[in-house]
Design goal:
With 125 residues, this protein is an alpha+beta fold. It has helices spanning 26-34, 94-104, 111-116, 120-123, and strands at residues 11-15, 20-23, 42-49, 65-68, 73-76, 89-91, 107-110.
Length: 125
């Protein structure tokens, strides 16, 4: 799989040893973060953020702005075509994420809440 050929939002991280890992979805990132890595802990985690004017129901392959995962806001529990696994949408602002959650009948999360959930799969029910 080529990550850049997957719809945004995608994710990436940098380990303490400088090794980078790239993910085709934020759900994949969350699974990776939950498992131990031979490269050590993640030192920096980034996600692509969707534009507030972008239709979240239409997957978009174009590059998006990157933001520190801890500073982004998320929407879970939505259906989105063309995405493997349970979709997690990310936004730069809390207001944009809350608007998307309301429009899509999803649930708003910050990064800490997103990581505390047992799995993204459970959030979509």
């Amino acid at each position: 799989m080529v990550v850049r050929e997957q719809p945004a939002p995608r994710a990436q991280l940098v380990h303490r040893d400088g090794t980078r890992a790239h993910f085709c979805s934020i759900g994949d990132l969350l699974q990776y973060l939950a498992a131990p890595s031979p490269h050590g802990n993640a030192q920096r985690v980034f996600v692509e953020v969707l534009s507030p004017t972008e239709d979240p129901e239409k997957p978009n392959l174009s590059p998006h702005a990157w933001q520190a995962a801890e500073a982004a806001f998320y929407v879970v529990g939505v259906k989105r075509p063309g995405v493997m696994g349970s979709p997690v949408l990310s936004y730069e602002s809390e207001a944009a994420a809350r608007d998307a959650a309301k429009h899509l009948k999803g649930r708003f999360r910050n990064f800490e809440q997103l990581r505390q959930s047992p799995s993204v799969e459970n959030q979509s029910r």
